[in-house]
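User: Before I run my own analysis I want an independent prediction to cross-check against. Here's the chain; please return only the structure tokens and, at the end, one sentence I can use as a sanity check.
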Amino acid sequence: MGLSGLGIFHTIIGVASIVGALVGFIRYGKISLKELSGKIYFYGTLITSITALGISKHGGFNPGHAFSVFIILLIAVAYFLFLKMENSKRARYFENFLLSFSFFLSLVPTVNETFTRVPLGHPLAKDINDPLIGKTLLFLLILFMAGSVYQYFNQKKVNKTTSLYLD
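Assistant: Structure tokens:
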């Protein structure tokens, strides 16, 4: 597998982030920054994205690094909306979407790295162009789109029953 110390730390925190997100999706239908699972996702994803910038199989800035920078931007905007626009019904739609989109984008390099490394000695995929990776990412994209639609309608229901500002 050949992971550096930073790679091992990155992987452990990344797995915790994924678990936090999955717990949030199962319990609340979204990644909720009010809940412990959402906080684990947010801080874990921030740490994972930052540490990813120090990891490179091929040397130099690569698409994985670009994903990391974009994910940091997405979760930062979601966190801003959570903190500074807590009374805005409209902001909740964007917050939900940004966190879910950041989760989906996090899974792109995760799937690639996992499938090209596991099981040791005989990985599931030969490289990033392997059809198994493409099919898995397509499946995850479909789940993301369906989940986004679900979150939209669920948030709409929540907005109707709360007294937040309508903006």
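Sanity check: The mean pLDDT is 92.
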